[in-house]
Design goal:
By secondary structure, the protein is α+β, with helices and mostly antiparallel strands. The protein has ten helices and ten strands.
Length: 365
């Protein structure tokens, strides 16, 4: 270990003794890292951003619409709960119109009863005797003329009074239901379901989840149930991943090959300038392995310096332009890659320097 530290210190001193050559190697490696991050890394960041959008609950949802004759009821939630690969399930009644309870002829909004066995996104209802509790979306509250989406509403068909307890913020996969007045339902009671929304754990599971849920619907007439999925989003995600990944790999390999060649040329030139130094070392008993290690350590030190500067400079540029950053594993891989490129670039010059005969090297003017 002591010898290793001594060799690393000597490699650092050698690098500092040739500031121009060392700076050129570090700049080449830094430019490589910056180029990879600003091209492939930028593409990877964009790919992850697009994938997160396409992996949203709305793109992982399966919507079942049941007609009145289908006889779909809330017991389906218990059967769906036994299926793996489902994040959550929400059931809704058929739509009924609701209006402000204090005057007729105003704007009407859709009202649905909601049932779920999962964590409910509705707040705990207040106790209001003989009144049902509802929650209005912001737009629905505005249409009903309710202050802060709270007040009294009335179901048009039945005349039932609804106490609107506040605003409901619908989850992403239920945004299409707006504007809406949501009534809390009891999932243990067998009630007719008109709309069943299932969210799969991942886009890839959507087809399997759809087929599994179809098998447990338990409806009287399956032809009265329509199914809507987001398979187009899944196909788009696959296409985006494939194209961006292919572009990133091709570009990265090209940059690495060019950088390795440039760094090897610079290091080879530096070795040729130090032929007498290496000859003296060999004449004094330095082994071929020592010469190779010193050049390898020197190149890796310069690669680490250049790679770090290139990475931080490119991240600053991405931040200035508001582009997404690649994840930490990608950045660490780029730093590791700078070490690999530096090591590969030093192999040829190091082997050439180590194999030269000391006597012939000392004769170099």
């Amino acid at each position: 270990m002591r010898q290793l530290r001594a060799e690393i210190r000597e490699s650092w001193s050698s690098a500092m003794a040739m500031p121009l050559t060392s700076a050129m190697v570090a700049i080449v490696i830094g430019c490589m890292c910056a180029a990879v991050i600003l091209t492939s890394g930028r593409a990877v960041g964009a790919q992850e951003s697009v994938s997160r959008t396409l992996d949203s609950p709305s793109s992982r949802s399966v919507v079942f619409r049941a007609g009145p004759d289908a006889a779909l009821d809330t017991d389906v939630l218990k059967r769906v709960a036994a299926i793996d690969g489902i994040t959550r399930s929400d059931a809704f009644s058929a739509v009924v119109d609701a209006e402000n309870a204090h005057f007729s002829g105003g704007e009407r909004v859709s009202a649905r009863v909601h049932w779920t066995l999962d964590e409910d996104w509705l707040t705990e209802p207040p106790e209001v005797p003989n009144h049902r509790i509802g929650y209005a979306s912001v737009h629905a509250g505005e249409l009903l003329g309710l202050s802060a989406s709270a007040g009294e509403a009335r179901l048009v068909a039945s005349g039932d009074q609804i106490t609107v307890a506040g605003t409901v913020v619908l989850p992403d996969h239920l945004q299409s239901l707006q504007p809406i007045l949501i009534l809390r339902g009891d999932p243990t009671a067998a009630e007719a379901v008109s709309l069943l929304v299932i969210v799969a754990d991942s886009p890839a599971l959507v087809p399997a989840v759809r087929d599994a849920v179809v098998g447990v619907l338990g409806v009287a007439d399956p032809t009265k149930v329509t199914v809507e999925t987001s398979e187009k989003f899944i196909q788009l995600r696959t296409l985006v991943d494939s194209q961006l990944s292919s572009f990133s790999r091709s570009l990265t390999f090209g940059i690495l090959a060019l950088t390795t060649a440039l760094a090897a040329a610079i290091i080879g030139f530096a070795v040729s300038q130090r032929r007498r130094d290496f000859g003296r070392r060999r004449a004094l008993g330095a082994s071929q392995g020592l010469i190779i290690r010193l050049l390898a350590f020197q190149s890796m030190i310069l690669g680490a310096v250049g790679g770090s500067l290139g990475m931080f400079g490119s991240l600053f540029a991405l931040n200035v332009y508001g582009d997404p950053w690649p994840r930490l594993p990608f950045l660490l891989a780029i730093l590791l890659l700078s070490q690999v490129v530096s090591l590969l670039a030093s192999v040829g010059p190091a082997l050439s320097a180590a194999r030269r005969e000391p006597i012939s090297e000392l004769r170099v003017p």
